[in-house]
Write a sequence for this structure.
C-alpha cells in the first residue's frame, strides 16, 4: 500500500508504514467500463462557449453552470489551494485521525486495481490518500492529495466537490469533469452525513480511466455509511458525556434529592442530597432496585400507558422508608413515546403548619380524625351523618383510640359548634361528688358548698355538647338521674328543687363492653339503650396498621414544630419498629412515642434508637399471642404503673404521660391495683 503525502512544496508517494486493522482484499475479474459518456465537442461547446448539448446529465450540467459562475478555469492543470495541517485546524485533524484506519481498510478492498481512496472534509480539503502507485502518480500530477481543496469552486466539477454540493453519491467520468486535466479520471464519491443531515465529509474512490472501477461507487457508499456510523457513535458518546456531566453538575448543585432510574427500575445515579434524605451512604445505590426505597412498580405501568399525555408524566411516589418525604417521579420518554427512565425528585419535607392537618381542620372537623383504614372511614362516615342531628351517641373503643377526638369533631360539625364542648371522665370523679359535679348545687347544699351555689356540667354545656367519658364507671345510683335528664332535658341542682332547662347533646364513651356490664347488673339497661341510639366503634391501632404512617407523619409534623426540631430523614428501622409493635396504648401511645423520639433524636435523623425501649423490644409480647404472654403483659403493665406512679410521686398526669395512657385510664388502673 502506498500513500500520497505533502512534503511542504510537493507531493510524494511513499510506501505506507501504517498497518491496516484487518485485511480483506477482494480480487475480482476486470470489468470494462465505457470510457466516458461525453465527447470532447460537447464539453468544449459548454465550458468554452456556454452551448448546451443533449446527453449531459442534469447533475453535471448544474455543476458546470456553477463552475462557470464561480469563474473556474477549465484549462487549469493543478489544484492551487493546498493547506497545511495547522491551517486546516483542529476539526480537520480530528476527522482525519478517526477516519484514517477506515481509509486503509477500504484501500484493502481496492488494492491492485489502479485506484486510490481519499476522504475530504466538509469544505473539500482532503484528509489523506491511499492507493496504488499508478493512481497516486497520476494524482500527484494534479496536486490531488492531502490538504488540497477538491471543492467545485477550487477544481471544478468532480465527484468529491459535486457530491458535497448536491448531497448525494455520484460518479464523475472523464469529460464530465469541468477541468480538462481531469478528463483522464473516473471518480466515485459518497457524502458522509452528520447528525443534522448535512454532509461533514466525502469518501472518494478514484483512478485513471483504465483502472478497475467496478463497484467503486457502491464501495464508496458502503464506506461512507460505515464512517458515518462511527461518527454517530463518537458524537453520541460525546453527547452522553456532556449530558452526564451536566446531570452530575446539576445533581451536585441542587438541594433537592435527585435519583435517576432506568426503565427496568434500577438506579443509574443519585445525588448526595437524595442519599441524605433517605439516610443511606452516598454512591452505594448505583444498580440497586429503586423499589427498595420507592413504591414504583405500579407507577411504572401507569406511566408506560400514559406517557403520550404530558400532564401524566409526573406522579407522586411513596417512599417506603420515609413516607413523610414528598417524592415525584418524572417520566423521561423518547420522541416515539418509549419510556427511557424516570427522574425522581425528592423534596425535603417542610414541617410547617401550613397545609398540615391542624390548619385544614378549620374547614372539616373530621379531618382531625386521622386514618384511611376502612374501620376509621366507616366510623367517620357515621359520625358525620349523626353530627347533623341531636341524637345521643355512644363511642366504644380501647383507651387512646380517639374517642374524644371523634366526639369533638361531631360537636364541631354540629349546629352546636358555637356552644361549649364539655368533657368529663365519669370514672375520675369520686362517687360522692358526681351528682353535684354533673347537676350543680345550691348554696348550703352541703358542708363546704360555695356561696351562691354552683352550676353543674350540664348547665355549663348548655347549647353545646357534654362528653361523658368512661360512662361505664358511672355509679349505679347516679345512672337513674342521668337517665332522667336525658328524658326531660332539665336538671335539678343538689339542694335545690327548681328544675333548670338545659339544651345539651350527650356523647358518651367507654372502653368497656357495656352490654356485659348490663348483664352483670352494673349498668342500667334503660340507660344503655338510651345512650347507644347510635353506636360508633373505634378500632385499636394494631388492627389498622395501614394508618400508622399517616399518624406518624402527622405527629412528626406536630412535634418537629412544637419542639422546634428539624427532622431531615427517617430511617427504615424506625418504621419497622413501629410496625412490629402492638400498641396497647393505641394512638395516644404512638403520639407520645413520636414526641419522645423527636425530643431525644441526637441529630436530625430519626432511627429506632430514638424510640422508647418498650417499642423497640424485639422479644416483647406480640398481639393476639397466647395466654402466658397475655399474663406476662399484665404483670409488666402493673409493674410499669407502680414504678411510674412512685417515680412521679403520685402525680397522675405526669405518670399517665410517661406511660403513654390517658389520665382516666391510669386512674382506673390504679384503683384496680389498689394503689389509690
Ligand atoms: N384518629 C386519630 N387521629 C388523630 N389523633 C388521634 C386519633 N386517635 C387518637 N388520637 C390522638 O390520641 C390521643 C388520645 O385520643 P383520645 O383522647 O381521643 O382517645 P380516647 O379513646 O378518648 O382515650 P381514653 O379512653 O383513654 O380517654 C390524643 O392525643 C389524640 O390526639
Amino acid at each position: 500500500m502506498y500513500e500520497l503525502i505533502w512534503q511542504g512544496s510537493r507531493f510524494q508517494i511513499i510506501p505506507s508504514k501504517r498497518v491496516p486493522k484487518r485485511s480483506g482484499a477482494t480480487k475480482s475479474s476486470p470489468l470494462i467500463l465505457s470510457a466516458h459518456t461525453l465527447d470532447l465537442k460537447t464539453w468544449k461547446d459548454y465550458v468554452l462557449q456556454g452551448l448546451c448539448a443533449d446527453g449531459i446529465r442534469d447533475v453535471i450540467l448544474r455543476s458546470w453552470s456553477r463552475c462557470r459562475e464561480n469563474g473556474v478555469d477549465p484549462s487549469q492543470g493543478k489544484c492551487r489551494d493546498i493547506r497545511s495541517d495547522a491551517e486546516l485546524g483542529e476539526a480537520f485533524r480530528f476527522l482525519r485521525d478517526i477516519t484514517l484506519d477506515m481509509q486503509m481498510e477500504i484501500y484493502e478492498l481496492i488494492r491492485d486495481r489502479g485506484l486510490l481512496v481519499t476522504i475530504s472534509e466538509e469544505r473539500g480539503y482532503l484528509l489523506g490518500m491511499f492507493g496504488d502507485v499508478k493512481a497516486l502518480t497520476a494524482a500527484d500530477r494534479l496536486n490531488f492529495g492531502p490538504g488540497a481543496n477538491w471543492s467545485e469552486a477550487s477544481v471544478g466539477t468532480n465527484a468529491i466537490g459535486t457530491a458535497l454540493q448536491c448531497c448525494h453519491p455520484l460518479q464523475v467520468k472523464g469529460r464530465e469533469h469541468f477541468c480538462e486535466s481531469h478528463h483522464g479520471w473516473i471518480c466515485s464519491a459518497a457524502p458522509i452525513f452528520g447528525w443534522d443531515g448535512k454532509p461533514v465529509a466525502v469518501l472518494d474512490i478514484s483512478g485513471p480511466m483504465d483502472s478497475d472501477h467496478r463497484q467503486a461507487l457502491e464501495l464508496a457508499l458502503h464506506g461512507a455509511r460505515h464512517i458515518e456510523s462511527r461518527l454517530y457513535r463518537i458524537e453520541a458518546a460525546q453527547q452522553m458525556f456532556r449530558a452526564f456531566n451536566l446531570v452530575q453538575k446539576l445533581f451536585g448543585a441542587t438541594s433537592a434529592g435527585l435519583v435517576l432510574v432506568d426503565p427496568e427500575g434500577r438506579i443509574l445515579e443519585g445525588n448526595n442530597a437524595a442519599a441524605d434524605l433517605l439516610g443511606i451512604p452516598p454512591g452505594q445505590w448505583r444498580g440497586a432496585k429503586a423499589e427498595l426505597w420507592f413504591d414504583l412498580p405500579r407507577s411504572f405501568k401507569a406511566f408506560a400507558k400514559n406517557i403520550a399525555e404530558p400532564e401524566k408524566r409526573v406522579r407522586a411516589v411513596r417512599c417506603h422508608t420515609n413516607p413523610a418525604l414528598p417524592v415525584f417521579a418524572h417520566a423521561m420518554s423518547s420522541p416515539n413515546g418509549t419510556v427511557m427512565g424516570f427522574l425522581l425528585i425528592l423534596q425535603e419535607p417542610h414541617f410547617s403548619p401550613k397545609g398540615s392537618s391542624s390548619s385544614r381542620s378549620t374547614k372539616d372537623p373530621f379531618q382531625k380524625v386521622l386514618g384511611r383504614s376502612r374501620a376509621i372511614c366507616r366510623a367517620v362516615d357515621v359520625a358525620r351523618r349523626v353530627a347533623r342531628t341531636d341524637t345521643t351517641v355512644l363511642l366504644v373503643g380501647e383507651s387512646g383510640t380517639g374517642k374524644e377526638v371523634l366526639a369533638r369533631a361531631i360537636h364541631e360539625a354540629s349546629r352546636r359548634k358555637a356552644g361549649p364542648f364539655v368533657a368529663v371522665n365519669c370514672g375520675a370523679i369520686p362517687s360522692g361528688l358526681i351528682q353535684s359535679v354533673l347537676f350543680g348545687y345550691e348554696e348550703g347544699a352541703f358542708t363546704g358548698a360555695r356561696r351562691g351555689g354552683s352550676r353543674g356540667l350540664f348547665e355549663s354545656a348548655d347549647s353545646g355538647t357534654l362528653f361523658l367519658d368512661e360512662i361505664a364507671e358511672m355509679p349505679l345510683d347516679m345512672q337513674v338521674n342521668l337517665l332522667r335528664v336525658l328524658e326531660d332535658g332539665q336538671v335539678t341542682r343538689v339542694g335545690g328543687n327548681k328544675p333548670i332547662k338545659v339544651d345539651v347533646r350527650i356523647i358518651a364513651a367507654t372502653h368497656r363492653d357495656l352490654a356485659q356490664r348490663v348483664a352483670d347488673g352494673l349498668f342500667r339497661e334503660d340507660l344503655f339503650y338510651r345512650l347507644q341510639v347510635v353506636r360508633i366503634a373505634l378500632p385499636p391501632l394494631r388492627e389498622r396498621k395501614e394508618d400508622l404512617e399517616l399518624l406518624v407523619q402527622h405527629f412528626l409534623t406536630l412535634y418537629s414544630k412544637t419542639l422546634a426540631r428539624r427532622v431531615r430523614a427517617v430511617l427504615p428501622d424506625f418504621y419497622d419498629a413501629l410496625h412490629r409493635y402492638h400498641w396497647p396504648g393505641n394512638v395516644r401511645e404512638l403520639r407520645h412515642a413520636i414526641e419522645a423520639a423527636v425530643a431525644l433524636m441526637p441529630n436530625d435523623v430519626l432511627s429506632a434508637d430514638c424510640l422508647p425501649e418498650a417499642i423497640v423490644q424485639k422479644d416483647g409480647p406480640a398481639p393476639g399471642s397466647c395466654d402466658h404472654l397475655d399474663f406476662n403483659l399484665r404483670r409488666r403493665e402493673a409493674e410499669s404503673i407502680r414504678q411510674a406512679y412512685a417515680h412521679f410521686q403520685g402525680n397522675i398526669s405526669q405518670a399517665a404521660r410517661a406511660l403513654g395512657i390517658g389520665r382516666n385510664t391510669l386512674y382506673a388502673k390504679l384503683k384496680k391495683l389498689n394503689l389509690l
